[in-house]
């Protein structure tokens, strides 16, 4: 049965990846509550400004019929709470008791599972603000209780809309006037009061600065994102589910069950998610992992150069192509996003780009809309079942590990139950800059906001089993070539390696590269609950009724 979501009750960051929707600038504010009543007042005061999932008009596509639209905000404001934040705000024990273990533990306690006990992911390398988890979370005056995310539109000169600064000032003033709620500093190096975020931008020949969908290693990002029931209106949802949903048993794509991402709805096991928490409190809310990941861009570039030269030699490729090929095999997508599974060779890559060209500013907007839609669809609509040996896309490529599609399915048409229960929504934005002469001592990376109904079953599973372990990819202990742990615990383990299988018909040997440097390092994070607007009202009024 079709699911109709109460969009006015759901926070906007659950359904929308703001960065992609015209909000390329962001800021994260972390707060501590020392007086429960002050904390509740703060939440109530902020409440009318929280951005819900009600839709605003799209700049790319006409709105589907029946859509309720609100004015596009200059800055989207969302709020989330750590477990100790809910405790500090006076949420009753009976409600807190229903919260999942991993959320109660918090991210630092889950370090062994997340791969954060390995150098250099360990807490010594975390930003000051996230180190609070080392101390008693109840008595420590630095425990992060509240997370506010601001996502702003950008002016033509590359600066954020003034509403970003104005909203920050408003939050600061609220803290000062109410008292008992304090902004926690300690983001970045040197430590700043907030975590600043920004999409990577480029200056056009006319001087206008525009965002581009790249991350710091140079890949086009934010392409794959699960589609679930109720996320979009009817036909749009069915179309978007192609490549981003699950399989329906007849080999067709369908949207995933809502309960995988929003609490209070049936999930893929036909159980209602979030029922351990009183439903009135959990429904239309969800969980979110905040994960700040530093990227060693210089090490990555240098690796592509050296190992790319070896690949060029072993496979007889032009050196220019080999770097892109290696990067593509590691990610599962060529740097411009074209899927390896659909275009495993340079010639195929070229063909794909000719068939699905990018929009061109010189063309008519209608033609560009068509181009955009065709390419967007082609980039996600593929399966792995016809490539069980990873001859097109390596079994251990980042996107093949993290969304196995039909790879683990005994019958391709059914898709994989295993995979359907491990999907995550990715929100967040990059931080810092990565100019050509960048050093790894400079701070740049991505703040990932990973949204799912069960942090344990979805986020922690993929992080531990699929990124930092290789068994499901038939790769023993090989970790993800991009984000996995390549450093070792004791120094005695084998060096990290990456294998590109080769089609015997080509006569080329498989390519094996050993000693992968650590490309991505954890800089900290925490687990948060993202309440519905109803639950926020209850928190603010102190009327959470667990009966
Ligand atoms: C700095 C660290 C990371 C980098 C550079 C990175 C890079 C990428 C790239 C280039 C893509 C392909 C573009 C796309 O399909 O949207 C991708 C996809 C994805 N990544 Fe990551 N990633 C990082 C960390 C992570 C982590 C830690 C997770 C999960 C715990 C993750 C989950 C995903 C998912 C779910 C997809 C979409 C796959 C699909 O649906 O086919 N990524 N990432």
Please explain how this structure is put together.
The chain has 547 residues and is of the alpha+beta class. The protein has 17 helices and 15 strands. It has helices at 12-15, 36-46, 83-88, 93-97, 101-105, 111-114, 163-178, 234-241, 279-282, 297-315, 319-331, 346-355, 365-380, 398-402, 417-420, 455-467, 533-541; strands at residues 25-33, 75-81, 146-152, 181-184, 195-198, 200-203, 209-212, 246-247, 253-254, 286-295, 425-431, 445-452, 497-500, 511-514, 520-530. The strands form 5 sheets. Strands 1, 2, 3, 4 and 5 form a 5-stranded antiparallel β-sheet that branches. Strands 11-12-10-15 form a 4-stranded antiparallel β-sheet. β8 (246-247) and β9 (253-254) form a beta hairpin. α2 packs antiparallel against α7 and α10 (297-315) crosses α11 (319-331). The longest helix has 19 residues, at 297-315. The radius of gyration is 23 Å and the shape is globular. It binds protoporphyrin IX containing FE (HEM). The site of protoporphyrin IX containing FE has 26 residues, from β10, α14, β12 and α16. Residues 215, 217, 219, 221-224, 293, 295, 331, 333, 398-399, 402-403, 424, 426, 445-446, 448, 450, 462-463, 482-483, 520 line the site of protoporphyrin IX containing FE.
Give me some keywords for this one.
547 residues; alpha+beta; five-stranded antiparallel sheet; 15 strands; 28% helix; globular; binds protoporphyrin IX containing FE
Q: Which helices and strands appear, and what pairs or packs with what?
A:
Blueprint: H1 12-15, E1 25-33, H2 36-46, E2 75-81, H3 83-88, H4 93-97, H5 101-105, H6 111-114, E3 146-152, H7 163-178, E4 181-184, E5 195-198, E6 200-203, E7 209-212, H8 234-241, E8 246-247, E9 253-254, H9 279-282, E10 286-295, H10 297-315, H11 319-331, H12 346-355, H13 365-380, H14 398-402, H15 417-420, E11 425-431, E12 445-452, H16 455-467, E13 497-500, E14 511-514, E15 520-530, H17 533-541
Antiparallel strand pairs: 1-3, 1-4, 1-5, 2-3, 6-7, 8-9, 10-12, 10-15, 11-12, 13-14
